[in-house]
Amino acid sequence: MSTQPLRIGLFGFGVVGQGLYHVLTQTDGLQAEVVRICVKDTAKQRPIASDVITYNGDEILLDPSINVVVELINDSDFAFDIVCRAMRQGKAVVSANKKLIATRLPELLALQHETGVPFLYEASTGGSIPIIRNLEEYYDTDHLHRIEGIVNGTTNYILSSLQASTSSSYQDALSQAQALGFAESDPTSDTEGFDAAYKTTILATHGFGVVAHPSDVVRRGISAIRGFDVDVAQRHWSSIKLVSRIVRSGNSVSLVTLPAFVSRKSHLAHVSGANNAIALTTDFADVQCLFGKGAGSRPTASAVLSDLSLIRDKYRYAYRRLRRSSGLTLDQRVTVSVYVRASDEQLEALPFLSVQTDHRGVEGRYIIGSMRLDELQQSTAYADRDAFVALYLED
Ligand SMILES: NC(=O)c1ccc[n+]([C@@H]2O[C@H](COP(=O)([O-])OP(=O)(O)OC[C@H]3O[C@@H](n4cnc5c(N)ncnc54)[C@H](OP(=O)(O)O)[C@@H]3O)[C@@H](O)[C@H]2O)c1
Protein backbone atom coordinates (compact mmCIF):
# COMPACT_ATOMS: atom_id res chain seq x y z
CA MET A 1 0.00 0.00 0.00
CA SER A 2 1.29 3.42 -0.92
CA THR A 3 1.11 6.35 1.46
CA GLN A 4 -0.40 8.39 -1.38
CA PRO A 5 -3.98 9.70 -1.16
CA LEU A 6 -6.53 6.94 -1.39
CA ARG A 7 -7.64 6.27 -4.94
CA ILE A 8 -10.84 4.33 -4.64
CA GLY A 9 -12.48 1.90 -7.01
CA LEU A 10 -16.06 1.47 -5.82
CA PHE A 11 -18.20 -1.56 -6.66
CA GLY A 12 -21.91 -0.83 -6.17
CA PHE A 13 -23.73 2.47 -6.16
CA GLY A 14 -26.88 1.62 -4.26
CA VAL A 15 -27.93 2.65 -0.76
CA VAL A 16 -24.47 2.36 0.84
CA GLY A 17 -22.39 3.18 -2.25
CA GLN A 18 -24.20 6.49 -2.74
CA GLY A 19 -23.98 7.18 0.98
CA LEU A 20 -20.22 6.70 0.86
CA TYR A 21 -19.90 8.94 -2.18
CA HIS A 22 -21.70 11.72 -0.30
CA VAL A 23 -19.95 11.38 3.06
CA LEU A 24 -16.59 11.41 1.26
CA THR A 25 -17.43 14.85 -0.11
CA GLN A 26 -18.31 16.11 3.37
CA THR A 27 -15.63 14.63 5.60
CA ASP A 28 -12.50 16.50 6.63
CA GLY A 29 -9.07 14.99 6.87
CA LEU A 30 -9.30 12.05 4.52
CA GLN A 31 -7.64 12.60 1.19
CA ALA A 32 -9.55 10.22 -0.98
CA GLU A 33 -10.89 10.23 -4.49
CA VAL A 34 -13.46 7.90 -6.04
CA VAL A 35 -11.78 7.18 -9.34
CA ARG A 36 -14.25 4.67 -10.82
CA ILE A 37 -17.60 3.16 -9.86
CA CYS A 38 -18.59 -0.24 -11.20
CA VAL A 39 -22.32 -1.07 -11.37
CA LYS A 40 -24.39 -3.67 -13.17
CA ASP A 41 -27.53 -2.27 -14.76
CA THR A 42 -26.71 -0.33 -17.93
CA ALA A 43 -30.24 1.08 -18.18
CA LYS A 44 -30.32 2.73 -14.74
CA GLN A 45 -30.13 6.52 -14.42
CA ARG A 46 -27.31 7.62 -12.07
CA PRO A 47 -27.18 10.81 -10.01
CA ILE A 48 -23.52 11.42 -10.94
CA ALA A 49 -21.44 12.14 -14.05
CA SER A 50 -21.35 9.11 -16.33
CA ASP A 51 -17.58 9.27 -16.97
CA VAL A 52 -16.91 7.77 -13.52
CA ILE A 53 -19.26 4.84 -14.10
CA THR A 54 -18.16 1.55 -15.61
CA TYR A 55 -19.83 -1.81 -16.15
CA ASN A 56 -16.50 -3.58 -16.45
CA GLY A 57 -14.85 -4.48 -13.13
CA ASP A 58 -11.45 -4.86 -14.81
CA GLU A 59 -11.33 -1.09 -15.22
CA ILE A 60 -10.96 -0.99 -11.45
CA LEU A 61 -9.18 -4.25 -10.72
CA LEU A 62 -6.50 -3.82 -13.39
CA ASP A 63 -5.96 -0.09 -12.89
CA PRO A 64 -2.61 0.23 -11.04
CA SER A 65 -3.46 3.77 -9.91
CA ILE A 66 -6.38 2.49 -7.79
CA ASN A 67 -5.06 1.43 -4.39
CA VAL A 68 -8.33 0.70 -2.54
CA VAL A 69 -11.39 -1.29 -3.61
CA VAL A 70 -14.63 -0.68 -1.75
CA GLU A 71 -17.03 -3.55 -2.34
CA LEU A 72 -20.67 -2.52 -1.77
CA ILE A 73 -22.69 -4.80 -4.01
CA ASN A 74 -25.60 -7.03 -3.10
CA ASP A 75 -24.29 -10.28 -4.58
CA SER A 76 -22.01 -12.19 -2.21
CA ASP A 77 -20.66 -14.65 -4.81
CA PHE A 78 -19.59 -11.93 -7.19
CA ALA A 79 -18.31 -9.92 -4.23
CA PHE A 80 -16.01 -12.84 -3.32
CA ASP A 81 -14.56 -12.76 -6.81
CA ILE A 82 -14.00 -8.99 -6.62
CA VAL A 83 -12.36 -9.18 -3.19
CA CYS A 84 -10.01 -12.04 -4.17
CA ARG A 85 -8.92 -10.36 -7.38
CA ALA A 86 -8.45 -6.97 -5.73
CA MET A 87 -6.33 -8.37 -2.89
CA ARG A 88 -4.20 -10.43 -5.27
CA GLN A 89 -3.55 -7.18 -7.16
CA GLY A 90 -2.25 -5.71 -3.87
CA LYS A 91 -5.24 -3.44 -3.36
CA ALA A 92 -6.66 -2.92 0.12
CA VAL A 93 -10.34 -3.84 0.37
CA VAL A 94 -13.26 -2.53 2.40
CA SER A 95 -16.56 -4.42 2.35
CA ALA A 96 -19.95 -4.22 4.05
CA ASN A 97 -21.06 -7.65 2.89
CA LYS A 98 -21.87 -9.77 5.95
CA LYS A 99 -22.99 -12.77 3.91
CA LEU A 100 -19.70 -12.79 2.03
CA ILE A 101 -17.65 -12.54 5.22
CA ALA A 102 -19.68 -15.01 7.27
CA THR A 103 -19.85 -17.69 4.60
CA ARG A 104 -16.31 -17.36 3.17
CA LEU A 105 -14.27 -16.41 6.24
CA PRO A 106 -11.70 -19.26 6.11
CA GLU A 107 -10.83 -18.38 2.51
CA LEU A 108 -10.76 -14.66 3.30
CA LEU A 109 -8.43 -15.24 6.25
CA ALA A 110 -6.10 -17.28 4.05
CA LEU A 111 -6.18 -14.54 1.43
CA GLN A 112 -5.22 -11.89 3.98
CA HIS A 113 -2.35 -14.10 5.10
CA GLU A 114 -1.24 -14.75 1.53
CA THR A 115 -1.42 -11.17 0.25
CA GLY A 116 -0.70 -9.17 3.40
CA VAL A 117 -3.14 -6.45 2.34
CA PRO A 118 -5.86 -5.08 4.62
CA PHE A 119 -9.42 -6.34 4.38
CA LEU A 120 -11.75 -4.38 6.66
CA TYR A 121 -15.51 -4.77 7.13
CA GLU A 122 -16.76 -2.70 10.06
CA ALA A 123 -20.04 -1.87 8.26
CA SER A 124 -20.94 -5.55 7.93
CA THR A 125 -22.03 -5.88 11.56
CA GLY A 126 -24.14 -3.38 13.45
CA GLY A 127 -24.03 -0.76 10.67
CA SER A 128 -22.65 2.41 12.20
CA ILE A 129 -21.69 0.75 15.53
CA PRO A 130 -17.90 0.32 15.77
CA ILE A 131 -18.07 -3.18 17.21
CA ILE A 132 -15.48 -5.12 15.23
CA ARG A 133 -12.68 -2.69 15.90
CA ASN A 134 -13.62 -2.50 19.57
CA LEU A 135 -13.54 -6.28 19.86
CA GLU A 136 -10.19 -6.35 18.07
CA GLU A 137 -8.57 -3.55 20.06
CA TYR A 138 -10.37 -2.40 23.18
CA TYR A 139 -11.49 -5.76 24.56
CA ASP A 140 -8.35 -7.62 23.65
CA THR A 141 -7.15 -7.80 27.25
CA ASP A 142 -10.44 -8.17 29.14
CA HIS A 143 -12.13 -11.55 29.54
CA LEU A 144 -15.21 -11.54 27.40
CA HIS A 145 -18.04 -13.80 28.52
CA ARG A 146 -20.97 -12.80 26.40
CA ILE A 147 -21.90 -10.76 23.36
CA GLU A 148 -25.59 -10.14 23.07
CA GLY A 149 -27.08 -7.90 20.44
CA ILE A 150 -29.91 -6.65 18.34
CA VAL A 151 -28.14 -6.62 14.99
CA ASN A 152 -31.01 -6.56 12.52
CA GLY A 153 -32.90 -3.29 12.20
CA THR A 154 -35.72 -4.66 10.04
CA THR A 155 -36.88 -7.21 12.59
CA ASN A 156 -36.43 -4.74 15.42
CA TYR A 157 -38.61 -2.26 13.57
CA ILE A 158 -41.32 -4.90 13.01
CA LEU A 159 -41.19 -6.11 16.62
CA SER A 160 -41.22 -2.54 17.96
CA SER A 161 -44.29 -1.59 15.97
CA LEU A 162 -46.08 -4.79 17.03
CA GLN A 163 -45.31 -4.13 20.68
CA ALA A 164 -46.22 -0.46 20.52
CA SER A 165 -49.54 -1.61 19.00
CA THR A 166 -49.04 0.56 15.92
CA SER A 167 -49.53 -2.67 13.95
CA SER A 168 -52.23 -5.20 14.63
CA SER A 169 -50.42 -8.28 13.30
CA TYR A 170 -47.04 -9.49 12.11
CA GLN A 171 -48.18 -9.15 8.48
CA ASP A 172 -49.39 -5.60 9.10
CA ALA A 173 -46.07 -4.66 10.76
CA LEU A 174 -44.08 -6.23 7.92
CA SER A 175 -46.12 -4.37 5.26
CA GLN A 176 -45.59 -1.13 7.15
CA ALA A 177 -41.82 -1.77 7.33
CA GLN A 178 -41.78 -2.51 3.58
CA ALA A 179 -43.73 0.66 2.76
CA LEU A 180 -41.24 2.74 4.76
CA GLY A 181 -38.18 1.08 3.20
CA PHE A 182 -37.13 -0.75 6.39
CA ALA A 183 -37.81 -4.17 4.85
CA GLU A 184 -37.13 -5.53 1.40
CA SER A 185 -39.84 -6.96 -0.88
CA ASP A 186 -38.39 -10.41 -0.09
CA PRO A 187 -37.75 -10.01 3.63
CA THR A 188 -36.71 -13.62 4.30
CA SER A 189 -33.05 -12.93 5.04
CA ASP A 190 -34.05 -10.47 7.76
CA THR A 191 -37.24 -11.99 9.16
CA GLU A 192 -35.94 -15.57 9.32
CA GLY A 193 -32.77 -14.47 11.08
CA PHE A 194 -30.22 -15.28 8.34
CA ASP A 195 -28.83 -11.73 8.26
CA ALA A 196 -28.42 -11.67 12.04
CA ALA A 197 -26.83 -15.13 11.98
CA TYR A 198 -24.17 -13.89 9.51
CA LYS A 199 -23.34 -11.12 11.97
CA THR A 200 -23.30 -13.60 14.86
CA THR A 201 -20.49 -15.55 13.22
CA ILE A 202 -18.50 -12.36 12.55
CA LEU A 203 -18.87 -11.33 16.21
CA ALA A 204 -17.80 -14.83 17.29
CA THR A 205 -14.60 -14.55 15.27
CA HIS A 206 -13.55 -11.15 16.58
CA GLY A 207 -14.87 -11.62 20.11
CA PHE A 208 -13.89 -15.21 20.79
CA GLY A 209 -11.48 -16.33 18.06
CA VAL A 210 -13.96 -18.86 16.72
CA VAL A 211 -14.44 -19.39 13.00
CA ALA A 212 -18.00 -20.59 12.57
CA HIS A 213 -20.29 -21.00 9.59
CA PRO A 214 -23.76 -19.38 9.73
CA SER A 215 -25.23 -22.90 9.71
CA ASP A 216 -23.54 -23.41 13.12
CA VAL A 217 -25.80 -20.73 14.61
CA VAL A 218 -29.03 -21.93 16.26
CA ARG A 219 -31.31 -19.67 14.27
CA ARG A 220 -35.00 -18.96 14.05
CA GLY A 221 -36.81 -15.87 12.83
CA ILE A 222 -39.74 -13.82 14.05
CA SER A 223 -42.47 -14.61 11.50
CA ALA A 224 -44.38 -16.97 13.85
CA ILE A 225 -45.02 -14.23 16.41
CA ARG A 226 -48.65 -13.53 17.32
CA GLY A 227 -50.34 -10.89 19.45
CA PHE A 228 -50.72 -13.62 22.07
CA ASP A 229 -46.91 -13.89 22.47
CA VAL A 230 -46.62 -10.10 22.76
CA ASP A 231 -49.23 -10.09 25.53
CA VAL A 232 -47.42 -12.85 27.43
CA ALA A 233 -44.12 -10.97 27.16
CA GLN A 234 -45.73 -7.80 28.47
CA ARG A 235 -47.16 -9.70 31.44
CA HIS A 236 -43.62 -10.93 32.12
CA TRP A 237 -42.26 -7.37 32.08
CA SER A 238 -40.32 -8.15 28.92
CA SER A 239 -39.99 -7.07 25.29
CA ILE A 240 -39.58 -9.52 22.44
CA LYS A 241 -36.44 -8.91 20.40
CA LEU A 242 -34.48 -10.88 17.82
CA VAL A 243 -31.28 -11.46 19.75
CA SER A 244 -27.91 -12.71 18.58
CA ARG A 245 -26.10 -14.25 21.49
CA ILE A 246 -22.64 -15.66 21.86
CA VAL A 247 -21.96 -17.07 25.30
CA ARG A 248 -18.71 -18.50 26.55
CA SER A 249 -18.90 -21.29 29.07
CA GLY A 250 -15.59 -22.84 30.07
CA ASN A 251 -13.80 -23.82 26.88
CA SER A 252 -16.79 -23.64 24.61
CA VAL A 253 -19.11 -21.08 23.05
CA SER A 254 -22.71 -21.31 21.89
CA LEU A 255 -24.04 -19.25 18.99
CA VAL A 256 -27.68 -18.27 18.80
CA THR A 257 -29.92 -15.97 16.78
CA LEU A 258 -33.41 -16.36 18.20
CA PRO A 259 -36.36 -14.26 19.27
CA ALA A 260 -36.03 -13.59 22.98
CA PHE A 261 -38.11 -12.30 25.87
CA VAL A 262 -35.78 -9.54 27.08
CA SER A 263 -36.37 -8.23 30.58
CA ARG A 264 -37.11 -4.49 30.71
CA LYS A 265 -34.18 -4.22 33.15
CA SER A 266 -31.89 -4.91 30.17
CA HIS A 267 -30.50 -2.20 27.87
CA LEU A 268 -31.59 -4.22 24.86
CA ALA A 269 -35.28 -4.09 25.81
CA HIS A 270 -35.28 -0.34 25.16
CA VAL A 271 -33.76 -0.45 21.69
CA SER A 272 -36.62 0.49 19.41
CA GLY A 273 -37.30 0.97 15.71
CA ALA A 274 -34.53 0.16 13.23
CA ASN A 275 -31.76 0.76 15.77
CA ASN A 276 -29.16 -1.80 16.78
CA ALA A 277 -27.35 -2.37 20.08
CA ILE A 278 -24.69 -4.77 21.23
CA ALA A 279 -24.04 -5.53 24.90
CA LEU A 280 -20.74 -6.98 26.03
CA THR A 281 -20.21 -8.72 29.33
CA THR A 282 -16.62 -8.92 30.51
CA ASP A 283 -14.75 -9.67 33.73
CA PHE A 284 -13.28 -6.23 34.33
CA ALA A 285 -15.55 -3.73 32.57
CA ASP A 286 -18.76 -5.63 33.50
CA VAL A 287 -21.61 -4.82 31.07
CA GLN A 288 -21.25 -2.22 28.34
CA CYS A 289 -23.68 -1.47 25.56
CA LEU A 290 -23.03 0.11 22.18
CA PHE A 291 -26.05 1.62 20.49
CA GLY A 292 -26.58 3.15 17.04
CA LYS A 293 -28.09 2.95 13.61
CA GLY A 294 -27.66 -0.54 12.24
CA ALA A 295 -28.35 0.31 8.62
CA GLY A 296 -29.14 3.16 6.25
CA SER A 297 -27.17 5.07 3.69
CA ARG A 298 -25.08 7.52 5.73
CA PRO A 299 -24.80 5.52 8.98
CA THR A 300 -23.47 2.48 7.11
CA ALA A 301 -21.26 4.69 4.96
CA SER A 302 -19.80 6.21 8.13
CA ALA A 303 -18.40 2.79 9.08
CA VAL A 304 -16.96 2.34 5.57
CA LEU A 305 -15.42 5.80 5.83
CA SER A 306 -13.84 4.91 9.13
CA ASP A 307 -12.33 1.77 7.58
CA LEU A 308 -10.90 3.91 4.80
CA SER A 309 -9.19 6.17 7.30
CA LEU A 310 -7.60 3.08 8.88
CA ILE A 311 -6.44 1.82 5.51
CA ARG A 312 -4.64 5.13 5.10
CA ASP A 313 -2.87 4.30 8.39
CA LYS A 314 -2.08 0.76 7.16
CA TYR A 315 -4.27 -0.87 9.79
CA ARG A 316 -5.17 -4.55 9.51
CA TYR A 317 -7.25 -6.73 11.78
CA ALA A 318 -4.84 -8.69 13.96
CA TYR A 319 -7.36 -11.49 14.74
CA ARG A 320 -5.47 -11.86 18.02
CA ARG A 321 -7.94 -14.23 19.65
CA LEU A 322 -7.88 -16.43 16.60
CA ARG A 323 -4.08 -16.40 16.48
CA ARG A 324 -3.80 -17.08 20.20
CA SER A 325 -5.79 -20.20 19.36
CA SER A 326 -7.79 -20.02 22.54
CA GLY A 327 -8.95 -23.60 22.01
CA LEU A 328 -12.60 -22.63 22.29
CA THR A 329 -14.96 -25.00 20.55
CA LEU A 330 -18.57 -24.64 19.49
CA ASP A 331 -20.98 -26.43 21.77
CA GLN A 332 -24.74 -26.03 21.69
CA ARG A 333 -25.31 -28.49 24.57
CA VAL A 334 -26.01 -25.65 26.96
CA THR A 335 -29.05 -25.16 29.15
CA VAL A 336 -31.27 -22.23 28.22
CA SER A 337 -34.55 -20.81 29.51
CA VAL A 338 -37.17 -20.72 26.79
CA TYR A 339 -40.74 -19.74 26.01
CA VAL A 340 -42.46 -22.11 23.58
CA ARG A 341 -45.99 -21.59 22.25
CA ALA A 342 -46.93 -24.71 20.30
CA SER A 343 -49.50 -27.49 20.04
CA ASP A 344 -50.17 -29.72 23.07
CA GLU A 345 -48.47 -32.62 21.31
CA GLN A 346 -45.33 -30.61 20.52
CA LEU A 347 -45.13 -29.17 24.01
CA GLU A 348 -45.53 -32.61 25.61
CA ALA A 349 -42.66 -33.90 23.48
CA LEU A 350 -40.24 -31.15 24.53
CA PRO A 351 -37.51 -32.38 26.92
CA PHE A 352 -37.84 -29.67 29.57
CA LEU A 353 -35.38 -29.98 32.44
CA SER A 354 -37.62 -27.78 34.58
CA VAL A 355 -40.92 -25.98 34.01
CA GLN A 356 -41.58 -22.54 35.43
CA THR A 357 -44.99 -21.91 33.79
CA ASP A 358 -47.34 -24.21 31.90
CA HIS A 359 -50.18 -22.04 30.68
CA ARG A 360 -53.24 -23.62 29.06
CA GLY A 361 -55.94 -21.28 27.78
CA VAL A 362 -58.48 -21.09 24.98
CA GLU A 363 -56.24 -18.70 23.09
CA GLY A 364 -53.16 -20.93 23.25
CA ARG A 365 -50.78 -22.94 25.36
CA TYR A 366 -47.22 -22.15 26.21
CA ILE A 367 -44.50 -23.39 28.52
CA ILE A 368 -41.66 -21.41 30.03
CA GLY A 369 -38.89 -23.63 31.29
CA SER A 370 -35.33 -24.74 30.82
CA MET A 371 -33.90 -27.25 28.38
CA ARG A 372 -30.79 -28.01 26.39
CA LEU A 373 -30.39 -25.77 23.36
CA ASP A 374 -29.42 -28.64 21.05
CA GLU A 375 -32.48 -30.63 22.13
CA LEU A 376 -34.74 -27.64 21.53
CA GLN A 377 -33.24 -27.33 18.06
CA GLN A 378 -34.08 -30.96 17.25
CA SER A 379 -37.68 -30.76 18.47
CA THR A 380 -40.83 -30.79 16.33
CA ALA A 381 -41.95 -27.50 17.90
CA TYR A 382 -38.74 -25.88 16.69
CA ALA A 383 -39.36 -27.19 13.16
CA ASP A 384 -42.98 -25.97 13.08
CA ARG A 385 -43.22 -22.57 11.38
CA ASP A 386 -46.38 -21.73 13.37
CA ALA A 387 -44.89 -22.41 16.80
CA PHE A 388 -43.20 -19.47 18.51
CA VAL A 389 -39.90 -20.25 20.19
CA ALA A 390 -38.02 -17.61 22.15
CA LEU A 391 -35.23 -17.45 24.68
CA TYR A 392 -36.41 -16.28 28.09
CA LEU A 393 -33.72 -13.89 29.31
CA GLU A 394 -34.07 -12.64 32.85
CA ASP A 395 -30.98 -10.43 33.19
N1 LIG B 1 -28.39 -0.96 3.04
C1 LIG B 1 -27.88 -0.98 4.26
O1 LIG B 1 -28.34 -0.24 5.16
C2 LIG B 1 -26.73 -1.88 4.59
C3 LIG B 1 -26.24 -1.92 5.92
C4 LIG B 1 -25.12 -2.71 6.21
C5 LIG B 1 -24.55 -3.47 5.20
N2 LIG B 1 -25.07 -3.44 3.94
C6 LIG B 1 -24.41 -4.26 2.90
O2 LIG B 1 -23.85 -3.37 1.94
C7 LIG B 1 -23.89 -3.98 0.65
C8 LIG B 1 -24.63 -3.05 -0.32
O3 LIG B 1 -25.96 -2.89 0.13
P1 LIG B 1 -26.93 -1.80 -0.51
O4 LIG B 1 -28.11 -1.72 0.40
O5 LIG B 1 -26.18 -0.57 -0.85
O6 LIG B 1 -27.37 -2.55 -1.85
P2 LIG B 1 -28.25 -1.95 -3.05
O7 LIG B 1 -28.84 -0.64 -2.69
O8 LIG B 1 -29.16 -3.04 -3.50
O9 LIG B 1 -27.16 -1.67 -4.21
C9 LIG B 1 -26.42 -2.72 -4.73
C10 LIG B 1 -25.47 -2.17 -5.79
O10 LIG B 1 -24.66 -3.27 -6.23
C11 LIG B 1 -24.57 -3.18 -7.64
N3 LIG B 1 -24.29 -4.51 -8.18
C12 LIG B 1 -24.95 -5.68 -7.98
N4 LIG B 1 -24.37 -6.68 -8.66
C13 LIG B 1 -23.29 -6.13 -9.28
C14 LIG B 1 -22.31 -6.63 -10.15
N5 LIG B 1 -22.28 -7.93 -10.51
N6 LIG B 1 -21.36 -5.79 -10.63
C15 LIG B 1 -21.35 -4.48 -10.28
N7 LIG B 1 -22.29 -3.92 -9.45
C16 LIG B 1 -23.25 -4.75 -8.98
C17 LIG B 1 -25.91 -2.65 -8.07
O11 LIG B 1 -25.77 -2.15 -9.38
P3 LIG B 1 -26.98 -1.41 -10.15
O12 LIG B 1 -27.05 -0.03 -9.50
O13 LIG B 1 -26.52 -1.35 -11.56
O14 LIG B 1 -28.22 -2.21 -9.92
C18 LIG B 1 -26.16 -1.58 -7.00
O15 LIG B 1 -25.54 -0.37 -7.37
C19 LIG B 1 -24.56 -5.35 0.84
O16 LIG B 1 -23.56 -6.31 1.04
C20 LIG B 1 -25.35 -5.16 2.13
O17 LIG B 1 -25.56 -6.38 2.81
C21 LIG B 1 -26.13 -2.67 3.62
Question: What features would you describe in this structure?
Answer:
With 395 residues, the chain is an alpha/beta fold. The protein folds into 2 domains: 6-120, Rossmann fold (3-Layer(aba) Sandwich); 138-293 and 327-393, 2-Layer Sandwich (Dihydrodipicolinate Reductase, domain 2). The chain contains 15 helices and 17 strands. It has helices spanning 15-26, 58-61, 76-88, 98-115, 131-136, 153-163, 170-179, 188-191, 194-208, 227-235, 297-312, 320-323, 344-349, 373-377, 380-383, and strands at 6-11, 32-38, 53-54, 68-71, 92-95, 119-120, 144-150, 218-219, 238-249, 252-263, 275-282, 286-293, 329-330, 335-341, 354-361, 364-372, 388-393. Strands 7, 8, 9, 10, 11, 12, 13, 14, 15, 16 and 17 form an 11-stranded mixed β-sheet that branches. It has a 6-stranded parallel β-sheet with strand order 3-2-1-4-5-6, with helices on both faces. The longest helix is centred in the first third of the chain and has 18 residues, at 98-115.
